[in-house]
Fold each of these.
Amino acid sequence: MPTPPASQPAFVLVEPQMGENIGAAARAMWNFGLDRMRLVAPRDGWPNPKAVAMASGAGRLLDAAQVFETTAEAVGEADFVLATTARPRGLTKPVYSPEAAMAEIAARIRDGQKAAVLFGPERAGLENSDIALANGIISVPVNPDFPSLNLAQCVLLTGYEWRRATSEVTPRTVEMAGTEWANQAEIDALSRHYEERMEEAGFFFPDHKAETMKRNLRNLWSRMPLTRSDVQTFHGMLRQIVRWKDRGG
Amino acid sequence: MPTPPASQPAFVLVEPQMGENIGAAARAMWNFGLDRMRLVAPRDGWPNPKAVAMASGAGRLLDAAQVFETTAEAVGEADFVLATTARPRGLTKPVYSPEAAMAEIAARIRDGQKAAVLFGPERAGLENSDIALANGIISVPVNPDFPSLNLAQCVLLTGYEWRRATSEVTPRTVEMAGTEWANQAEIDALSRHYEERMEEAGFFFPDHKAETMKRNLRNLWSRMPLTRSDVQTFHGMLRQIVRWKDRGG
């Protein structure tokens, strides 16, 4: 059976140290639907039981992870490689925000290319020799006074941007799914109900302010984003309080 | 010295359990320049040495963290509150992507408002009673097969979007210039006023539905874009109708 075309980038962990961090990175990838992990010379060998313990629920990624001796081998088949690094490194490379990086990778993958993202070892970060293999750098806009993202966090943010770049339904705007909004007639009826009862109750006082008060009240109802159910609640409260009045408290 | 205007949202951890997670959340906040942490009833008390050990480098946030008994107190002064939650909860609330959420909060803060973001306890997530206090929900677009973000990861992604929303100044059209919006404490007071009177009037009936009805009503008030003047109108109507009742119609 032929290999299906790469529909996502490989995430390459270069010389990761603690197994726990590899497991946490696997979880972070799978949180955003990514499952192609590659490892370059993991310090404590492979497989690593501590990675498995931490990965719970995303252990499949570890089983399927490919292990390489060098970064060059790990990215050998890729058409486009980006390196995550917090610090500028004195190498001339295009610098991408995570968002721009994943948009670029998504576009290239749609064009049939293969892509990989490099993540450095926990403390040291990527060596210049690894960064030199990349077409560009991903720089996360962290607080310059505290740029201490760990490996799994860096994977998480990159995976999040991958998902944003590729999910068909990106809710950029506010939605309120399944909500039945009240229509204008229903809002009008509600407004009249309150106006009538408030008139009876003597709310619109003094007389010379009554018209302005009524207009403001109508305006208030019409400005509110009321659902059908909200409208029923407001009717219900008013009816109940009138019943309370009628039975003398 | 007068308090400087809020230039960032407060991040409110509701009933956090392990100290390590509070420390990790502090680090995640400070990675993106956020330093206003609030805690609601931390399980293991406060201060917590495990939180301090984990927060290394961001310990200042823990020293400055404000601790509250209830979520309502923690968000009392906020004009706009969003709740992070993975699951739809059967409450009618606007749903924001992290990006849309932080853009909205950034815009409101530029307009002089105060904002807060709620994060639930590690396992259980936020209770509906907490979510009812929020104006909307933040939903992270995770893999539906593996939606297992932990507390610090959720804080990290939200903080990241805050940084993205604020690192470039995007102009926003000011709507309803000069409007004084009601703050959360004023909305709460209004909500309580209606709840108390409606209780007296026998609105919350039958008994087994009373709690749901109350929660829905609180949720209704918190969803409405009420001005100070609107709040006064609603108080005024209710007071007047009670007077009407008291004088026997």
Amino acid sequence: MDRFMEIAYKEALYGISKKHGGPFGAVIVKDGKVISKAHNQVLLKNDPTAHAEVVAIRKACRKLNTIDLGGCTLYASAKPCPMCIGVIQWSRIKDVFFSGDYEDTKKLNFDDQSFYEDFEAEDDHWEQIDEEHFDTLIQAFESCKNDIKY
Amino acid sequence: MDRFMEIAYKEALYGISKKHGGPFGAVIVKDGKVISKAHNQVLLKNDPTAHAEVVAIRKACRKLNTIDLGGCTLYASAKPCPMCIGVIQWSRIKDVFFSGDYEDTKKLNFDDQSFYEDFEAEDDHWEQIDEEHFDTLIQAFESCKNDIKY
């Protein structure tokens, strides 16, 4: 078994044993070294965003003191869900290795795959309002542009 | 202006003034009452996941002591990015009002929209490995099924 994936599995198994959340672990690696590792803590933290990948990415950012993890590789015990793909994209991680896929996690009643179906979310439940006011925020942000590096 | 959107805007403007991150605010409402509000804190927290929506949802979960925010409504100063859509889906929020759209935020160099283009992420950079081991995690999780409510 891949040595980094093995660490992700150990995290996942630890999380299960502690009843912290689902059977998911993640490891961030840079230049052959583990930068961070984490397991799913949704139940422990009562936080639907506390997926292993999210927790590992947040830890890696703190450790490397940057929000740009370009050059890092993510190992995940299962294929990252749509939310985690978004986090991976924002953190600029390109390389991802995963073990289980959505068919595997579906056996445990995780319904990530269905998220794709209504991902555009442009249905009856989403509505754009007050668009004319957004210029206020654009102007406020632009007036600080030289101070805010984002 | 919608009164809840106005609160989201105030959060966004506060965040800009403090240089905490982008011009984004979010409010979670239930039964006509504000449950939580937040602004983007990516720069403050050095955390690429600290979008207004994510912070507001995490706060609301803590406040209501649940990971299921079904029945809540989200107000966001701009259209939630793919990551935030995932968080919204996991938190089971259905109703979303937003002000600016991706065309507006693109003016500020936020590239959310491009995330959709490679969202499936099934390119050269993603690889499934060690799939045969995933049954280990399925079995470990299932053996705890009655203890872990997830």
